[in-house]
Amino acid sequence: MTPSVRNLLRPLPDARSAEQFEALFERPGLRVERIVSQGQSSPPGFWYEQAQDEWVLVLAGSAVLRFEEPARAVPLAVGDSVMLPAGMRHRVESTDAGRPTVWLAIHVDRRDAAPSDDRVLDGQRAAT
User: Is the pLDDT of residue 117 over 70?
Assistant: First the structure.
């Protein structure tokens, strides 16, 4: 098998009307995905509360994440990453409206919990 090479920054899907999710690699208990956002944010009152640990890296653009506990907003720029432990309530406050924000996200099942899908509140999946 010949390894395939691809660029995560081009071509990019048009994310102006909706955030774009693309699975890059999946195995039991592990998912790596590229997320492309442009001007999206989590709906008002929406909080992610995932059953998996998630690590995200901003490859292009910028974003602001908000955490419930401790309550704070964290701006993210190119090269910034953040570890989101399972159960940490967070939301996407904003993503760059003028250009795509490209995220690399790694979701990992916790060893102390049974594998399960991401859990979101209010029955919605929104911006990372």
Answer: no
